[in-house]
Backbone:
């Protein structure tokens, strides 16, 4: 039986051995080193790959990546290739055992994988972005937005904040945060360190289920049924700020800028009232909106 080792103990330069069935050649072993850690940008939601220069080709995917003592450190997954044939160029990626064991444990327990989330849109800190923010570092995750009612909003994260550590682990890029949150169980508390205007601050994020609540209310906005809305600046009502593309609300004709003044028979005083009305309605509900000074009724599906 192959022993599994915690991939967090790996260092760049460690020896690595890839085992697989490349190009139909059974039980092939290739050797290299760990070329990099915390790699992202491969297009997956959860990214924290191990990079190795051990030769990996078609047929290696799903095979083990081993350390110098024959212990499992990752699962070979993909390569970057500059050639038309998609052959080995010495840049291969493996899913680390830290993520692999989370997936395996969930599959054994429930037969499915559910990932955590904190309701934040992130981007990797680049040299250009760091200059714009006046920072002298190029490793971190930049907060672009925090969803209303999300753990990120409740923790006080704002656009422009740069997360540098999460759960006592350094953050290399946005993928580092997504990987840590994605394998944390709902309800888990994750301490984070972030920079705001060049000053370091701390917060605690509570991991939420990947199945978001139907209605979410935050400090300055709320979300429900593909709509994001906030208090109207012109008195009573809730103003629609975002209509999710392809949603039932978009199909029904709701537009950004509409001000909802009633939902069914309930008057809407503010965003909290609209959120409560949509929650109580459950199914289809008629919205009365003000658009360009005219009152319009829109039937919003459940």
Residues:
């Amino acid at each position: 039986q192959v022993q599994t080792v915690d991939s967090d103990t790996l260092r760049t330069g460690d020896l690595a051995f890839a085992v697989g069935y490349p190009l139909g050649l059974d039980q092939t072993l290739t050797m290299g080193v760990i070329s990099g850690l915390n790699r992202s940008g491969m297009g997956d939601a959860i990214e924290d790959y191990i990079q190795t220069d051990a030769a990996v080709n078609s047929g290696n995917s799903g095979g083990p990546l081993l350390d110098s003592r024959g212990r499992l450190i990752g699962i070979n997954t993909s390569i970057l290739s500059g050639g038309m044939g998609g052959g080995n160029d010495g840049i291969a990626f493996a899913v680390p055992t830290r993520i692999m064991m989370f997936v395996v444990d969930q599959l054994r327990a429930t037969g499915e994988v559910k990932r955590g989330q904190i309701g934040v849109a992130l981007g990797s800190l680049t040299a250009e972005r760091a200059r714009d923010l006046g920072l002298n570092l190029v490793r971190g995750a930049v907060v672009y937005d925090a969803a209303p009612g999300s753990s990120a909003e409740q923790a006080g994260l704002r656009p422009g904040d740069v997360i540098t550590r999460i759960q006592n682990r350094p953050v290399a890029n946005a993928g580092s945060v997504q990987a840590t949150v994605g394998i944390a169980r709902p309800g888990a508390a994750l301490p984070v360190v972030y920079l705001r205007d060049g000053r370091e601050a701390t917060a605690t994020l509570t991991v939420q289920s990947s199945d978001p609540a139907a209605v979410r209310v935050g400090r300055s906005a709320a979300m429900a049924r593909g709509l994001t809305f906030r208090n109207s600046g012109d008195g009573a009502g809730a103003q629609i700020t975002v209509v999710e593309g392809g949603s039932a609300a978009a199909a029904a004709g709701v537009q950004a800028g509409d001000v909802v003044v009633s939902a069914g028979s309930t008057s809407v005083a503010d965003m909290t009232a609209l959120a409560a009305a949509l929650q109580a309605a459950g199914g289809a509900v008629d919205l009365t909106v003000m658009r360009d000074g005219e009152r319009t009724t829109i039937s919003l599906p459940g």
Q: What stands out?
A: The chain is about 15% helix and 35% strand. The mean pLDDT is 85.
